[in-house]
């Protein structure tokens, strides 16, 4: 089963007042084009994260994000209890020493003192427990994207099968016109000669030239090669993921045989069928760019 390069995955988990979230999305690309954005606390693990993504996704334009959302209580500024007690003790000592009335509301006064409220913006060290959770979240997001790719790949394969069947049916529909085409070509040449006054020609030589001309327009080889390419495309899809480039090359070869068939057709009905085959093949070529 083939895989699509398009996908999306997202996962979250709670850890000590934090919500850790990982998000990964991918589009088609000739190779792996990976960009990552991680929260500063996980920066030291970025190479490990990139290795995880590379191993799982292999190919595509991939964006990976890992961030933290602090819960409200975790965002609250910490109160320095020891400093509060020290400020109150000093105020009581000064009031007693200098006979100054103590304030009615110690709390309102002390809360305004320096460093009682202080938000710690320093970079926290990453604990092993937190990294286990964050790594699990990242892996879940990657697994979701892989599952998404598999689902999209299945839909693509069904679409390709439909288009291959359509091309095969169109190819078979050419056959009734082939004999008709030979007779029309023969009659057109004879009518052309008859329209020239007083022309003399060797009928045996004419027959030989007509046979040679008609053989040059024979499309049996092109039909056989196109049928082989259709079968090869199907077999390649069954080989699993990682066949996107190969499928693209096969589609190009299919296009060559269809184009050659069209150039040799020399009959409006056959050329109309060739146009329909080109339309089906073009839809395959557009979608094969999304295949891993």
The N- and C-terminal alpha carbons lie at a distance of 11 Å
Structural domains: how many: 3
- The low-confidence parts are none
Q: Which architecture of the largest domain per CATH?
A: Up-down Bundle
Instruction: Provide the CATH topology of the largest domain.
Output: Four Helix Bundle (Hemerythrin (Met), subunit A)
Q: Give the % helix.
A: 55-70%
Number of beta-strand segments: 4
Gross geometry: rod-shaped
- What's the arrangement of strands in the largest beta sheet? 1-2-4-3
**Biggest β-sheet strands, sense, barrel:** 4 strands, mixed
- The number of helical segments is 9
Average per-residue pLDDT, rounded, comes to 86
CATH class of the largest domain: Mainly Alpha
- Rg calc: 38 Å
Helix and strand succession?
Answer: EEEHEHHHHHHHH
Strand content: 5-15%
Secondary-structure-derived class: alpha+beta
Structure description:
The protein starts with 6 loop residues before the first strand and ends with a helix. Strand 3, helix 1 (46-57) and strand 4 (60-70) form a beta-alpha-beta unit. A 4-stranded mixed β-sheet has the order 1-2-4-3. It has helices spanning 46-57, 72-75, 81-98, 106-110, 128-194, 203-216, 220-238, 244-265, 268-288; strands spanning 7-15, 18-27, 32-38, 60-70. It has 292 residues and is of the alpha+beta class. It has 3 domains: 7-74 and 127-150, Ribosomal Protein S5, domain 2; 78-110, no CATH class; 152-288, Four Helix Bundle (Hemerythrin (Met), subunit A) (Up-down Bundle), CATH 1.20.120. The radius of gyration is 38 Å and the shape is rod-shaped. It is built from 9 helices and 4 strands.
């Amino acid at each position: 089963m083939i895989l699509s390069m398009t996908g999306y995955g997202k996962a979250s988990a709670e850890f000590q007042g934090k919500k850790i979230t990982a998000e990964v999305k991918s589009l088609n690309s000739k190779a792996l084009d990976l960009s990552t954005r991680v929260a500063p606390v996980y920066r030291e693990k970025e190479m490990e994260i990139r290795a995880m993504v590379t191993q799982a996704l292999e190919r595509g334009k991939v964006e990976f994000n890992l961030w933290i959302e602090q819960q409200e209580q975790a965002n609250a500024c910490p109160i320095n209890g020891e400093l509060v007690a020290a400020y109150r003790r000093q105020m009581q000592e000064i009031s007693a020493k200098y006979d100054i009335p103590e304030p009615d509301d110690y709390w309102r006064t002390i809360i305004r003192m320096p460093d009682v409220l202080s938000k710690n913006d320093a970079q926290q060290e990453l604990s092993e427990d937190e990294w286990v959770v964050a790594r699990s979240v990242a892996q879940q997001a990657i697994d979701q994207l892989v599952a998404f790719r598999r689902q999209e790949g299945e839909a693509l394969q069904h679409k390709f099968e439909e288009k291959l069947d359509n091309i095969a049916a169109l190819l078979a529909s050419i056959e009734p016109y082939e004999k008709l085409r030979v007779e029309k070509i023969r009659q057109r040449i004879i009518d052309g000669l008859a329209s020239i006054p007083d022309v003399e020609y060797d009928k045996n030589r004419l027959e030989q030239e007509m046979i040679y001309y008609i053989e040059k327009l024979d499309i049996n080889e092109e039909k056989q090669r196109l049928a082989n390419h259709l079968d090869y495309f199907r077999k390649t899809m069954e080989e699993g993921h990682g066949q996107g480039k190969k499928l693209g090359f096969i589609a190009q070869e299919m296009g060559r045989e269809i184009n050659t068939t069209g150039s040799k057709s020399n009959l409006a009905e056959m050329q109309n069928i060739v146009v329909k085959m080109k339309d089906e093949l073009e839809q395959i070529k557009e979608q094969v760019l999304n295949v891993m």
